[in-house]
Inverse folding.
């Protein structure tokens, strides 16, 4: 299988509405949860946002990241047509970012552009905090050589799950 180009990877990162964050629990057990991410300043950004969460969930996520900052982000597509299945894993170092981070504004702008829901839902519930993911490695698989590029093309042309405000609606 040919390598995943940086261009195609960035197109996936810019269009995929959700990632799965895999990190380690306090007992080193694996933990995974869905998160929103946007690409800016050579990293991915995820807010600790105003969506409802279980009590203490934010604090737990941040404590886990501080304890073990090496995490993985998984982006995947599943469908009834198995010729279009694929996944991409990013091995990342996660850091807690606050408003004084040099790329804070770029992260906010990317999240706001990608997720119009932030016009109705507060970006932050309490103290503004984001997690910055700097990827250090990429691995991937697809069921056919063009599965990922077909998925990206379908998002450009307004296919299922196309993000509002993306190229196809402008």
């Amino acid at each position: 299988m040919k390598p995943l180009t940086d261009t195609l990877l960035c197109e996936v990162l810019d269009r995929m509405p959700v990632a799965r964050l895999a990190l380690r629990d306090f007992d080193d057990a694996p933990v995974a949860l869905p998160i929103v991410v946007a690409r800016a300043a050579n990293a991915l950004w995820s807010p600790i946002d105003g969506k409802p969460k279980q009590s203490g969930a934010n604090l737990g996520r941040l404590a886990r990241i501080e304890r073990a900052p090496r995490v993985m982000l998984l982006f995947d597509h599943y469908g009834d047509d198995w010729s279009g299945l694929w996944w991409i894993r990013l091995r990342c170092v996660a850091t807690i970012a606050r408003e004084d981070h040099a790329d804070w504004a770029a992260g906010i702008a990317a999240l706001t552009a990608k997720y119009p829901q932030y016009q109705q839902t507060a970006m932050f519930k309490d103290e503004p905090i984001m997690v910055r993911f700097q990827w250090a490695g990429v691995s991937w698989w697809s069921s056919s050589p063009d599965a990922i590029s077909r998925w990206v093309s379908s998002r450009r042309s307004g296919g299922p799950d196309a993000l509002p405000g993306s190229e196809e609606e402008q």
